[in-house]
Design a protein that fits this description.
With 222 residues, the chain is an alpha+beta fold. The chain has one domain (10-209): Jelly Rolls. Helix content is 14%, strand content 25%. The protein contains three helices and nine strands. The longest helix has 14 residues, at 124-137. It is globular, with a radius of gyration of 17 Å.
């Protein structure tokens, strides 16, 4: 996959999703290579979003049938000090050909857009510092996605959690559909009982310190 750092996300669909108020955090595979989509009953509310992401990925020339597809679903109380997702400027799938689609119902994701491409190190840790520096010195390049829109993010879209004003807060829902050739098999990920699999689960600090796996949440045994 070729791209340019500083590219904007691409709006794919407008979606209203009816969430279970009791849902907090789920992160699990919903399709394996060579299988169809298998959503657990409590995630059927997201089927339109997953289908829209899969059709869009296929339109981009991705061999979706050969991919793992993962779904992240988070709902909780968000505030200025706790925006629900992990803060920090980054690119999902950094150093890979993974593709991600994101959606939120309020306080949507921010992204950093530039007509000229900045020079970014291929090293995971250095690149994170460079993304943070870009947002600090060029804050006028920061944009915001719109709520209830599904966006495509390739590994070159620099983005961060929303800035929720002090004194504000409320329930926020966030959804991400990820396409990858790799297993996302880190401790803490949810298990989809619609599939029969028993992956070895790896501690998260292994993948987070592996430049090749930056932001990808996977680590494969040799």
């Amino acid at each position: 996959m070729t791209g340019r750092y500083g590219s904007p996300p691409v709006e794919v669909a407008v979606l209203h999703l009816d969430w279970d108020e009791l849902m907090h955090w789920l992160y699990l595979p919903v399709k394996m290579p060579g299988t169809g989509l298998r959503l657990p009953p409590n995630l059927m509310f997201a089927v339109d979003a997953v289908h829209a992401a899969m059709f869009d990925a296929a339109d981009q020339g991705r061999e979706v049938q050969d991919d793992y597809v993962y779904l992240t679903a988070r709902r909780g109380f968000a505030s200025a000090g706790s925006p629900l997702n992990r803060p920090g400027w980054h690119c999902d799938g950094f150093g890979t050909d993974d593709l991600n689609h994101v959606w939120s119902d309020r306080w949507p994701t921010r992204y950093w857009e530039s007509p000229s491409e900045p020079k970014i190190s291929p090293d995971h840790h250095d690149s994170l510092r460079e993304f943070e520096e870009l947002a600090r010195i060029l804050p006028w390049n920061i944009r915001e996605m719109s709520p209830e829109r599904l966006y495509r993010l390739d590994p070159y879209v620099i983005h961060d959690v929303p800035q929720i004003p002090a004194g504000e807060g409320g329930m926020r829902s966030f959804l991400k559909v990820s396409f990858s050739r790799h297993r996302y098999n880190l401790v803490g990920n949810s298990h989809n009982h619609e599939f029969d699999y028993a992956w070895k689960m790896w501690p998260r600090d292994i993948a987070r310190n592996d430049p090749a796996a930056a932001q990808a949440d996977y680590y494969e045994e040799a």
